[in-house]
Amino acid sequence: MKSMSELAEKLDKRMQKLTKHDNVHFTDRGNSAIFMALSIAKQINNKPKILIPDQGGWYSYKRYPKYLGLEIVEVKTDYGVIDLKDLKKKLKKDEIGCFIFSSFAGYFAEQPLRKIKTICKKKNCLIIEDSCGSIGDTKLCNGKYSDMTVGSFGNWKPISYGYGGWISVREKRWLDNAREVMSMCKVHERFYKDIMKFIRKNKFKKLIKLNKIVKEDLKDFDIIHRDKRGLNVVVKFDPKITEYCKEKGFQHILCPNYIRVNEMAVSIELKRLNLDRIKELTSN
Predict the structure, then answer these.
(1) CATH number, residue 43
(2) How many domains does the chain have?
């Protein structure tokens, strides 16, 4: 049986490959990783404001900056996908220290990560990429374009262990700026014994495939960001969509809802399906 240090080393190497960052730390929750990343960003840049998307984000984006004394500024989006012109406009005053957003807006639409990085780098604005939905992708969850990635292994995530999260950073010394937070959100030892088998059962690729199948099923409806990669599928509201979800056994979220879209719509929560069900739906 491998020792705890051997398990931790193996996990570090795997996550370094997945995030494309050499420095990874594990937390008890994805929210803890988000708080840690924001704390690090404040200490590095010490600017008064933080940028978040106006929709397609996560609840903690609005709550946690306030604890750190940071003012929130929202960037315009096209149903969660970052408006690059508005991003440039918001960064002109050089008051924003970091930008946190999800790789997939609301888990349903891919962000133009490389272009966002180009814009932010010019203004020394750190990028915190919330990679909950994109871990395992070759384009996103990408340390080449993100200064930090954060994510969760909780229920309904592609890597669905039900516990734990991570933060990866470009510079190892940045983790020294978050030692106090790190000490409060340690993972339990069992995490290191269990998590690798859940990483091997990552649902990401099969969810991408299922997303395309569902979009084809609903081709006659008004799908938001129909042509963008995603895990969930978001469709402008029609009672027939909720009937479809009931028929298929899909959970759904009714919008407007900040974590999906500020629009009358239905978010079909494919990411909540277990791996066996996803395999069944994508096997044909």
Answers:
(1) 3.40.640.10
(2) 2
